Amino acid sequence: MFGWEFPPKIFGGLAVASYGITKGLSLQGDVETTFCLPHPCGEEENFLKIIGMNQVPINYRNVDYDYVKNRVPGYMTPEDYYRFRDHIYADFGYMPTNDMGCLHFDQGYGKNLNEEINNFSIVAGVVARSEQYDIIHAHDWLTYPAGVHAKMVSGKPLCIHVHATDFDRSRGKVNPFVYSVEKNGMDNADCIMCVSELTRQTVINQYHQDPRKCFAMHNAVYPLSQEYLDIPRPDHSKEKVDTFLGRITMQKGPEYFVEAASLVLKRTNNIRFCMAGSGDMLEAMINLAAQRGIADKFHFPGFQRGKQVYECYKNSDVFVMPSVSEPFGIAPLEAMQCGTPSIISKQSGCGEILDKVIKVDYWDINAMADAIYSICTNPALFKYLQEEGIKEVNEITWEKVGLRIRKLYEETIMKCNY
Known about the structure:
Helix content is 42%, strand content 12%.
């Protein structure tokens, strides 16, 4: 499995989904996953094997066994070194490697992302020759080239997991380079898993893929730990809190949240609004709140991580996700786990599996404002969405997702063997 993110380093929903899928597979007992990351932090959980692509030598001529043994104890035995070195290490002497013969990768999304995507795919070819596996699974467009390279090297079937497309990220202003990488991955895939039927239709219609190899594979959530369950819910009897939590970017529709807030505050003065996150539209949203005259009712606490995220959910009476195009969207499920009623856009993939939420078009700020006002002023509606939301989301588990993925693996392997 190739991925760009994995907890505890979380940059977005991709890390959460990667963890959930691999954990769900591991619960079956007989599925072993080797997860390849550009730059692990060393604190990943041990229910799966982690390979740091920044630790894989690609130029054996520059790698002496005694040096490897002394620098990285247990990296490989002498027998492994001499048996595999002529087969698993390519000679990329022209590439800038460190003294171990390894390529550099930033943690996260660095300035040289396109170069790192290419380097990741080169190292994938080395890993593909050295590991034992039945199927390849590549997450999101950054790792599609790695998946394709591994398939070319090994002849094993390739599944790609579409967590988002550039049509979602760009509001239709597609980057030709990203599109070509996405389409090449899809063209070479034997199975395409999409996080929603909404995304599946984009893959079929915009990337011209065979519907028979495209499958909707909705995300899920894990049960809250006791630490998060014990977070208290403050008394908001006098003043309610309405929250947006996510990347403050064009895709997430933050401006519609601000505009809806402005409408709500024309009807009542006892609601505060929180826009938690970071992104290229943060400054514009601060300015928009000021222009609408509601800055005194708006809070911008910045990027939230770990326990802070769940404290934010628990401190909210309403969670709003007004995404313009959301392939899935795990955040509403997390909010519902915390007992916070959610409002989501009809353009969100998670709406395909959620009923105990209020759904509005992202652009309909009047409907959004009405929903916010209703939940905040109608205790019966709040209680219904809170209680029924918890029941609904507790049935949406990664263990079930893992079983569905396992079934697709088996069908794909069987199909490719004929």
